[in-house]
UniProtKB/TrEMBL annotation:
Keyword Protein transport recorded: no
Sections of the chain in a coiled coil: none
Keyword annotations from UniProtKB, A to Z: Membrane, Transmembrane, Transmembrane helix
Protein name per the record: MFS transporter
Intracellular or extracellular location(s): Membrane
Topology of the protein relative to the lipid bilayer: Multi-pass membrane protein
Transmembrane stretches, start-end: 7-25, 37-57, 69-85, 91-111, 132-153, 159-178, 190-211, 231-251, 263-282, 288-307, 319-343, 349-370
One of the Pfam families matching this protein, by short name: MFS_1
Keyword Ligase attributed: no
Source organism: Luteibacter jiangsuensis
Listed SUPFAM superfamilies: MFS general substrate transporter
Length: 372
C-alpha cells in the first residue's frame, strides 16, 4: 500500500534528520568556541522549537490535511539542517536550532496523524512499525553523518548531502500521502480543546518520554559513577536500551495485534519499571545493563499505542489529539532529565531513577485508557 510505504519513509526521514545533528554538535562547539554551559542553553532551543510548534501543527493538520503539512514541514527540515552549519555565533545557532526543532515537531505531529489514518484504512496495528523506522532512521542518520565527517567531507557539504537524500524522499512520496481519511469519525471531528482522556494519554506519554530522556542523559553517568564502569564503556547502557527498543518496535505491530493495546501498555510499563528497579537496586554492572534492556523492551511500544489511542478519540480531530499528546511527551523529555538531576543532587541518582520506575507503575495502572 503506497500510503503505508510513504508513511514508513517519512518516519525514516524524521529519524535521519534529527539524528544527523548529533555528530555535528562537537563541530559546532569547537567552531563557535562555546563552553559547556552555553552549549547546553543553545541545545535547549531545538526542544523548545518542537514543543512550541506542535500545537500549531495540530491546527494545521486539521485545517489543511496531513499531506500538505508533511510536505511543507519536511522541506523545511531539509532547509534547516545545512543552516545549522552556517550559524556565525551562538545566537544564530540557537535560532537555527529553534527553526530545525519546530520543523521536526510539525513533521512529528503530522506523520503520526497520518499514521493513524493509514491504520484505520488497513484495519490492523501499524504504528509500532512506523516508530521502528524512526529508530532505524536515528541509527542511519547518526552513523551516516559521522561516516561522512570521518571521510573528510566538510561539515556543510555533509549536511547538504543528507538534506539531498531527505529531499528525494519528500519528492517521491508526497503524492502518496492521504489528504484526509473520510470516515465517520473524521467527518464529525471538530477543532476543540483536548478532552480529559487526551490529557491523560498525554500524561502517560510524558512519563514514558521522561524515561527515555533519563536513559539518554543519565544512563552513562549512572554506569560510570554508580556502577564503576570505565568511561569508554559507560555508553553501553544507552546502546543496549536503543537496540532493545528498536527490536521491540519492529516486532510491535504483531505483538499488539496478538495481545491488544491495553496489555501492551500495562505489561510494557511494568517491564520498564522492573528494568529501572533492577538497575538501581542490585549493585552489579551486568544487572544494570540487563535492566536497561528491559526498559527498552518494555517502553518500545507504549508510545505508538498511546498515539493510536489518541487518534481514535471520538469527536476529536486526530491532529489536535496527537499534537497534545506529543507536546506533553516532549515536555517530559525536556524537563524530565533536569528534574532527575535535581532529585539526584538532594538524594542519589539511584533514588531518582527509581522514582521514574514508580511513575511507570502509574502508567501501567492507567493502561485501560488505551482501549478507547
Amino acid at each position: 500500500m503506497r500510503p503505508a510505504r510513504a508513511t514508513r519513509l517519512i518516519f525514516l526521514l524524521s529519524g535521519i534528520g534529527m539524528a544527523s545533528w548529533a555528530p555535528m554538535v562537537p563541530y559546532a562547539k569547537a567552531r563557535l568556541g562555546l563552553d559547556e554551559a552555553t552549549l547546553g542553553l543553545v541545545l535547549l532551543c531545538m526542544g523548545f522549537g518542537a514543543v512550541m510548534a506542535m500545537p500549531l501543527a495540530g491546527f494545521l493538520t486539521h485545517r489543511y490535511g496531513n499531506r500538505d503539512v508533511i510536505g511543507v514541514s519536511a522541506l523545511l527540515v531539509c532547509v534547516a539542517l545545512p543552516l545549522l552549519t552556517m550559524a556565525p555565533d551562538a545566537y544564530w545557532l540557537g535560532a537555527a536550532l529553534w527553526f530545525f526543532g519546530a520543523s521536526l515537531g510539525v513533521v512529528d505531529v503530522a506523520m503520526n496523524a497520518h499514521a493513524v489514518d493509514v491504520e484505520k484504512h488497513a484495519g490492523k496495528p501499524m504504528m509500532s512499525g512506523f516508530h521502528g523506522l524512526f529508530s532505524v532512521g536515528g541509527l542511519v542518520g547518526s552513523a551516516g553523518m559521522a561516516a561522512l565527517l570521518k571521510a573528510g567531507m566538510p561539515l556543510t557539504s555533509g549536511a547538504l548531502a543528507v538534506s539531498g537524500g531527505l529531499l528525494a524522499i519528500v519528492a517521491t512520496q508526497w503524492r502518496h500521502f492521504i489528504v484526509r481519511l473520510h470516515d465517520t469519525d473524521e467527518k464529525h471531528s471538530i477543532f476543540r480543546l483536548p478532552s480529559a482522556a487526551v490529557l491523560l494519554l498525554g500524561f502517560l506519554c510524558l512519563v514514558v518520554f521522561l524515561a527515555e530522556g533519563a536513559m539518554l542523559d543519565w544512563s552513562a553517568v549512572f554506569l560510570r559513577y554508580s556502577r564503576g564502569f570505565d568511561p569508554s564503556l559507560a555508553g553501553l547502557g544507552y546502546a543496549a536500551f536503543s537496540i532493545a527498543m528498536a527490536c521491540g518496535r519492529l516486532l510491535g505491530d504483531r505483538i499488539t495485534a496478538w495481545v491488544g493495546p491495553v496489555t501492551i501498555v500495562r505489561a510494557g510499563a511494568f517491564l520498564a519499571a522492573l528494568g529501572f528497579f533492577l538497575a538501581t537496586m542490585l549493585p552489579w554492572g551486568p544487572a544494570a545493563l540487563l535492566g536497561f534492556v528491559l526498559v527498552g523492551m518494555g517502553a518500545s511500544n507504549i508510545v505508538p499505542v498511546l498515539f493510536s489511542a489518541a487518534g481514535r478519540q471520538p469527536r476529536t480531530s486526530p491532529g489536535i489529539a496527537i499534537a497534545t499528546v506529543t507536546s506533553l511527551g516532549y515536555a517530559g523529555m525536556l524537563a524530565g532529565p533536569a528534574a532527575i538531576g535535581f532529585v539526584a543532587q538532594h538524594s542519589s541518582l539511584s533514588i531518582a531513577l527509581a522514582g521514574v520506575a514508580v511513575l511507570l507503575v502509574v502508567v501501567s495502572a492507567c493502561a485501560s485508557i488505551a482501549r478507547r
